[in-house]
Write a structure and sequence with these properties.
The chain has about 70 residues and is mostly beta strands. It is about 0% helix and about 15% strand.
């Protein structure tokens, strides 16, 4: 979860944590924010407002998340 929004998040899928010689000791992964599409707040500090209908998951790659011309990891 990326607070305060309950539907903003970061995560990974299908990331192998076991190599040929056993468990990976350490791993660094660049992660970016995503919006689950279940809350319609328009700013980072907006109160919760359910999205009806729900929208597809999309990257948080514009607006308040941009620094200059890019979204930091």
């Amino acid at each position: 979860m990326i607070a305060p929004s309950p539907d903003w998040f970061v995560g990974v899928a299908d990331l192998p944590l076991r190599g040929a010689n056993g468990w990976v000791d350490s791993l660094t992964v660049d992660l970016y924010g995503w919006d689950e599409g279940t809350d319609d707040g328009v700013t980072y500090t907006s109160p919760n407002a359910a999205s009806m209908p729900h929208v597809p998951i999309f990257p948080l790659d514009d607006g308040m998340f941009k620094v200059g011309d890019e979204v930091p990891r």
